[in-house]
Amino acid sequence: MSAKHKAKAKAEQVKGRVKEAAGRAAGDRRTQAEGRTEKAKGDIRETAEDVRRTLKK
User: Fold this and answer.
1) Would you give the end-to-end CA distance of the chain in angstroms?
2) Quick one: DSSP state of residue 18?
3) Sign of the CA dihedral 23, 12, 50, 3?
4) What is the DSSP letter of 1?
5) CA pair distance 41, 33, nearest whole angstrom
6) In this structure, are residues 31 and 18 in contact, taking their beta carbons and an 8 Å threshold?
7) Residues 15, 34 contacting (CB under 8 angstroms)
8) Is the dihedral of CA 7, 12, 15, 17 positive or negative?
9) pTM, whole model, 2 decimals?
């Protein structure tokens, strides 16, 4: 299960980076903000998974 959650977090981070870059290129601040939000959610998921894995050990 751990690898599945970690992969989902990485995918969300990448999606956020792409969306942020697209917003920057198009000059769309809303899309940039959405991208930053998605990236942050991915970061949080990844950190939570790391903590969960550390506590299991």
Assistant:
1) 15
2) H
3) negative
4) -
5) 12
6) no
7) no
8) negative
9) 0.82
Asked whether residue 4 carries a pLDDT value surpassing 80, the answer given is yes
Residue found under tokens 């942050």: 40
pLDDT at 22 over 60: yes
Measure the CA–CA gap between 6 and 49, rounded to whole angstroms: 7
Q: Which amino acid is at 34?
A: E
pLDDT in tens, 44-53: 999 998 898 8
Tokens 């506590």 -> residue: 55
DSSP label at 28?
-
SS3 state at 21: helix
Tokens in use for 48? 């939570």
- State yes or no: pLDDT of 1 exceeds 70: no
Q: Which two tokens stand for residue 21?
A: 């870059």
